[in-house]
Amino acid sequence: MASQTQNEPDDDCMDEFMDKFTTQKYKGGFNEKTWEEEFEKVPMFMKKPPEDIDPVKNPELACLQSIIFSDDTPLEEQATTYKNEGNDYFKEKKYKKAIASYSEGLKKKCGDTDLNAVLHTNRAAAQFHLGNFRSALNDALAAKKLKPDHLKAIIRGALCLVELKKYSEAISWCDEGLRADPKEKKLLELRLQADQLRRTWERDARKSKLKEKKKQCEKAALLKAIKDRKIKLFAPAKPRRRSSDDEEDEEGVSGALAELSLDGISSENATGASVFLDESGSMNWPVLFLYPEYGQTDFISAFHEGARFLDHITVMFGEELPRWDTERKYNPQDLQLYFEDEEREEVYQVNPEHTLLEVLKHDRYFIKAGTANFIILVKGSSFCKDFLSDKKVHRLKRTT
Length: 400
Prior knowledge:
It is built from 14 helices and 9 strands. Helices cover 48% and strands 12% of the residues. Helix 4 (75-91) packs antiparallel against helix 5, helix 7 (133-146) packs antiparallel against helix 8 and helix 8 packs parallel to helix 10 (185-228).
């Protein structure tokens, strides 16, 4: 009779072990109410692994992972595993993790061309959902290079090109895909969309070009009108390239008209106002009236060059005086109009009968920041006397 080895289970012991369950319940089994959750914790039966596998807390999972991604496992199998992992993340809309998995699969550089094309295409889809259209396009290009007739890669690339507003290229991609499958619905729809967007973009580009051309013509006419009237614009000094006298003159005028600025004096109605030529060829200027005694302003966005100052003053201080005039002294007949020559520290008194053009043509008048400025004071007031006390005052004569 052969002797029983030390490691072989004893029949009597096994019988005794099994007999115990006739009188007592096995305590190591699954709970009948929670067996599904407990079953899911068994590594071999998990539907999906934890996101981070800690070898200390989950030694069984770490072991399985090392087996799956062992250097002994064929590269195609490893790449396929990463692809499937990425697909699971993609379904859960975890696009960054999906990209990481597809990237790991591509790093394996396996010899399966179709598999690598799928990894690129799937990564392109994940990048697309994150709004990384250029990265997605690069993956679509890589996939198409590996497999020229890969429709998913072509569709994904065309979608990226539409998002990047490269409509003609998107149409070319669609045409390429339709040569392989003329009935591919997605490509047919995408081509139609890209063609409509291209037509809209081209139409808008033509409109924008015509608008810019019109703007340049109006600017040229405006510059000519300013020069013809010998109106002088003051532009802040700034470095610029050497050019001919005519080019320098045009640059100075253009710079002064480029943007309206009130030089620190605010007026909510002044925003966006600039000089323009009306249909009759007359110039209309933005004009700012300053009341230094009260720190107030009035702004006229379109003061016709042929209009008299008296006409505007009568309207501004006609039937009702402004609220800030607490002493009720800003009556039209008591007001005096001036402009200041800052370079010489002199002021010129303007006759209210003057037109705007008569004043703008004066040798010592300079328009700053595209806006004409005038000071209004009350004749004989103490503030008027103090304001003019340290300045040389000239009376502007009419040139009519």
